[in-house]
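Feature request, filed as a ticket because there's no other form

It would be nice if the structure record came with a short human-readable summary line next to the tokens. Right now we just get the raw output. Example of a typical job, pasted below so the devs can see what we mean:
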Amino acid sequence: MACSDESGSKSPPPSYSNMDEIPLYDEIIPPPPTIKTPATPPPAYNEPNIPQGIPLNTCTGGPNPYPILNQPTQIAAVTQQQQVFVQQSVNPVAPQVIVVQPQQSTTLDDTPASIVCRYCHQSIVTHVEYKPGVISWLMCVVISFLGGICGCCVIPFFVRGFLDAHHSCPLCKRHIGIYTRK
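Raw output as currently delivered:
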């Protein structure tokens, strides 16, 4: 691969023996930065800064188009004293405490549940009575067809896993709900 110099002519890259002739990056000295000086020097602090080309208002009879606000010559200090009386009153009324509990949608299952009775509005643990349902009768028929002998077909009526759970309130004795097996 060939290298091109500033004139655009292509020459082969330098060999390793000519490495002493090639300047290293740290030997290249950048030119000093040029400092541009303004054509006109800035005004001195004691000279008024008047833009060139704008004439001064020399009219004394007319209103000044650039009004200067006058500062007051006398400053009067006004002090005011005010007495503040703070009276605290203590009310012997106890604060009212309101406890709000969110409604819990408790689903009934085959064990007693802690709920609020919808009839007597008391917080209770339900009374559960287990009664045979559709699943117990279905299991009885299946066991009979499979040759259930010696009364084995009545086993589902004694196993709690095949019975429906009927929930009732222990206080008002009203029926709350039924958990049916699926």
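Something like this underneath would help us a lot:
The mean pLDDT is 74.
The two ends are 84 Å apart (CA to CA).
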